[in-house]
Design goal:
Blueprint: E1 5-11, H1 15-26, E2 35-42, H2 48-58, E3 62-67, H3 74-83, E4 88-91, E5 97-98, H4 102-113, E6 117-125, E7 138-141, H5 143-146, E8 155-157, H6 158-161, H7 176-185, E9 189-201, H8 217-234, H9 239-253, H10 266-283, H11 286-291, H12 294-304, H13 308-321, E10 326-329, E11 332-335, E12 361-369, E13 375-382, E14 390-398, E15 406-409, E16 414-417, E17 426-436, E18 440-445, E19 460-462, E20 466-472, E21 478-484, E22 493-498, E23 503-509, E24 515-524, E25 530-533, E26 535-537, E27 542-548, E28 555-565, E29 568-573, E30 584-587, E31 590-596, E32 602-608, H14 610-621
């Protein structure tokens, strides 16, 4: 069978995690005959090589190569890539492991979209992962969408990378030129964000490459210079290139100029400063500078002007004093870092400007329903380090549209949202907005920071709207859905029994506050036929629904109920009881089979009896 994917794994002194990594490959849902595993033992001294040989005897698709230690993962990755036969190549580190469906899903995405790189979602174990990359699945992504992650722990089409090689003999950042080159020459890139494909581990014992002392500047910066030059060779001058270059300044240059810069020896300080200054002179553009935080905008200016004295004063002030106060003036905001408007320093105001980059600190304290039907939101929002008066609001915006914004004052720790004032149904996202005297404003999605007691209240029925459902999104932000369905959990079904020929009786409870009426309806799946279901509603909220299936006809029938509260009504699909009744009759030689759907709801399949089907076959033969 043709190899679909080659999994290349460098191995060096990782005996405690090696089995877990390989087991995750051997447990893949993709046919093992379509997977080859190439493990390259890079001179291990802890017995990892012997473990690989033992595992290879039990797994025919595991190939093992032993070689002298090369000084980093680039060498064994290159050796494995040279041996690979698969249509795709996946690089797996021996500390990490794969989700069971990872290779099948990623290969399917590449096949379907004809893309050369698939970036599968990372799950961080003791480490942060670039969540922004995995905000949503992107069948066709741009290099700018994925450039935050330059680790090679991805699926590559082998024809794309056949001529690429990793930089050898270096423990960190050896992979950047490889992955950057692949991104920038790929015919297409996909992001698979709805499944944890790769479990990425930071070793707790402090022995991973990224936890080791800093690579000397003389070795480190030429690699960064090479990858930034590669960007310039493949991406034209302009905003797209600026995004990629800013990522390298932020991820590779700035960290070498933080507090540790003051702790290294004079020779290493000088080499670091000179190398960083050369990168600034080569690749800093107004677009890159505009993307930077003010602290780094100031220091990029110091690098460009070769003012190491100013830079070190700024750095010490930032370490000792923390974030600076913010000045609001003439509709603009400025971070008052050291040397702000110091004539001797001559640093332009725009290096300090924060306008458009202010995000309020916010907190959700409680949620509930007012007696009048308004949604009450307790909380606070403030732009910190600003002395001028501020006003806070909650802003509701319809998802997927640019119109219809609705603002509600957040005063004395509370906002009351009249949902009937919103012009349309659908999903509305809630933002915290803070305005400073002078017109400067900052906004952020609201709800992700909240008190322990800030529970989401149950959905309500509102006149003229239907179902109103507050909820928290996956990142934990507050949103409201208007006009959706009542959650089926609010109408639990306790029992379903046959109450006569072709008659099913369901009994349960209504847990919708204030419900006064209930009516039922059977709806044919994938069609427009319906018929009513008599429902009796007790004063205690209990209900009984009688399904006379003799009038149904062939098909799959879903049971719905309409609940009325005051002048508002909403529909809900009824859930299935824990114990389902057996198959029964639907009259006229029809058979009724109640069953539970994947969503846990109640459905009845009405079909012909086997005897009737046999009779029809006999008639066709004669």
């Amino acid at each position: 069978m043709v190899v679909k994917v080659s999994v290349v794994m460098p191995v060096y002194n990782c005996r405690t995690t090696l089995g877990r990594a390989l087991d995750s490959v051997f447990a893949q849902t993709l046919d093992q005959r379509r997977i080859e595993v190439i493990a390259v033992d890079d001179g291990s001294t802890d017995g990892s090589g012997a473990d690989l040989d033992r595992l290879a005897r039990d797994h025919r698709n595991l190939r093992v190569l032993h070689q002298p230690n090369s000084g980093g993962p680039g060498g064994p990755r290159n050796a494995g890539l040279a041996m690979a036969k698969g249509e795709y190549v996946f690089f797996l580190d021996s500390d990490d492991w794969l989700g069971a469906e990872a290779l099948e899903r990623m290969c399917a995405m590449a096949d379907e979209q004809q893309t050369d790189v698939v970036v599968g979602r990372y799950a961080g174990i003791n480490r942060k992962v670039p969540e922004k990359v995995f905000h949503k699945t992107l069948p066709r992504a741009t290099p700018q969408d994925v450039y935050e992650t330059l680790a090679p722990l991805k699926l590559f089409r082998r024809s794309l990378i056949a001529g690429l090689r990793f930089k050898e003999g270096q423990a960190t950042h050896e992979d950047q030129i490889f992955t950057s080159q692949a991104y920038l020459t790929a015919a297409g890139i996909s992001v698979l964000a709805d499944y944890d494909c790769y479990y990425w581990v930071e070793r707790e014992d402090g022995t991973s490459a990224l936890q080791q002392p800093l690579t000397p500047a003389a070795t480190y910066f030429p690699v960064i210079a090479e990858v930034m030059t590669n960007v310039a060779d493949h991406v034209a001058f302009g905003p797209d290139r600026d995004v990629l270059m800013e990522r390298h300044f932020r991820q590779e240059v700035y960290p070498r100029l933080r507090a540790r810069f003051l702790e290294i020896g004079p020779e290493e300080q000088g080499a670091t400063w000179t190398a960083a200054r050369d990168l600034v002179k080569a690749w800093l553009t107004p677009g890159v500078q505009a993307l930077a935080h003010p602290f780094w905008r100031v220091n990029l200016h110091c690098l460009e002007q070769d003012r190491r004295d100013l830079y070190e004063e700024n750095l010490r002030a930032d370490i000792e004093q923390g974030p600076p106060p913010i000045l609001v003036e003439d509709g603009r905001a400025y971070a008052r870092h050291a040397h702000f408007r110091d004539p001797a320093a001559g640093i332009p105001d725009e290096c300090y400007e924060l306008t458009g980059r202010l995000w309020p600190a916010h907190r959700l304290t409680c949620l509930g329903w007012a007696a009048s039907g308004e949604l009450t939101v307790g909380g606070e929002a403030v732009l910190e380090r600003i002395e001028e008066p501020q006003t806070a609001e909650l802003v509701l915006r319809p998802r997927g549209r640019d119109d219809g914004e609705h603002r509600v004052p957040l005063t004395a720790g509370e906002a009351r949202i009249d949902l009937a004032a919103l012009p349309d149904g659908g999903h509305w996202d809630v933002y915290a907005s803070v305005t400073v005297a002078g017109g400067v404003r900052g906004e952020a999605r609201f709800g992700s920071v909240r008190d322990d007691g800030a529970e989401v209240p149950e959905p309500r029925l509102a006149e003229g709207i239907g179902v109103v459902r507050p909820y928290l999104t996956e990142p934990g932000n507050l949103s409201v859905e208007l006009g959706g369905e009542i959650p089926s959990g609010m109408l639990p079904v306790d029992e379903a029994v046959w109450a006569g020929s072709a008659r099913l009786r369901l009994s349960g409870r209504i847990e919708v506050p204030g419900a006064s009426k209930m009516r039922g309806e059977l709806r044919i799946r994938d069609g427009d036929r319906t018929f009513p279901v008599p429902v009796s509603l007790g004063a205690d909220g209990g209900f009984t629904a009688d399904l006379d299936l003799a009038g149904a006809g062939l098909g799959r029938w879903d049971l719905w109920a309409e609940i009325t509260v005051g002048g508002a009504a909403g529909w809900v699909r009824l859930p299935a009881p824990v114990t389902m009744p057996p198959a029964g009759s639907a009259g006229r030689l029809l058979r009724a089979v109640p069953y539970i759907t994947d969503r846990g709801t109640f459905t009845v399949l009405v079909s012909e009896h086997r005897a009737l089907r046999a009779l029809r076959r006999l008639q066709r033969r004669t």
